[in-house]
Amino acid sequence: MTIWLVFGSYLAAVNPLRLRPALPEESGRMRWQPVLLGAALVIAAGAGLVAVSTEFLDAIEVTPETYRIAAGTVAALVGMRVVVFPGRAEEPQLNGMWASVVPVAFPLLLTPELIALISIFGATESATRSIGGLLVAIGAGVALGWVAHRRPQLWLAGARLLGAFLVLAGFALVVEGIRDV
After folding, report:
1. Which of 17, 28, 113, 173 makes the best surface tag, with the fewest CB within 10 Å?
2. 77: nearest Cα among 178, 163, 153
3. Backbone angle region of 27, left / alpha / beta, with phi > 0 → left and psi within -120 to 50 → alpha
């Protein structure tokens, strides 16, 4: 798998254009402390998952090829949902630094499709490539948090495009998994 598909898959799973409207705000400005802490938590969890992904697949007795098909299916289904419904549901909002855990780290950044992609890329790609792609994708999500959220229809159109790319990446994973079996 190319580095571009790994990075693009992570970026589409994070989907910063869909993420931005749900980030915690105060007086119309994004609260940066919970966002940075939540991103750091997700990167640490992702790096830990990359480190144990091969052992995880061995423990659940699933081959990387089969898990690639499953991860691709999850990514494609979530991507299809994003194409149809690009807006996020109302997330619970906690105050203070707990906002970095809920909603920033989970469920905004650390989503099931991202976990599935981290697991398969951690098991089949180099750790550097997998963690590097995750770092850049989360960084892009956080960086777009500082952009003023104007023209929400344009943001939703971009979120749909990233959702379509997630469908494409999901199908690529499924096809590659079928070929490898």
Report:
1. 28
2. 163
3. left
13 belongs to a structural domain: no
Give the span between the Cα atoms of 4 and 52, in whole angstroms: 23
Tell me the per-residue pLDDT of 74-92, one tens digit each, with 9 for 90 and over.
999 999 999 999 987 776 6
Q: Quick one: DSSP state of residue 30?
A: E
61, part of any domain = yes
**Residue 22 in domain:** no
Residue span of the structural domain in which 48 resides:
30-180
Question: pLDDT digits over 16-67, tens only?
Answer: 888 877 777 776 666 788 889 999 999 999 999 999 999 999 999 999 999 9
Q: Taking Cα atoms as reference points, which of 42, 63, 51 lies closest to residue 130?
A: 51
Return the sign of the alpha-carbon dihedral for residues 65, 69, 71, 76: positive
CA torsion angle for 159, 163, 165, 171 (degrees, to 10)?
180
Specify the number of domains making up the chain.
Answer: 1
Q: Which of 128, 156, 167, 129 is nearest to 13 (CA)?
A: 167
pTM of the model: 0.92
Distance CA 45, CA 24 (A): 21
Does 103 sit behind a cis peptide bond, omega within 30 degrees of 0 on the bond before it? yes
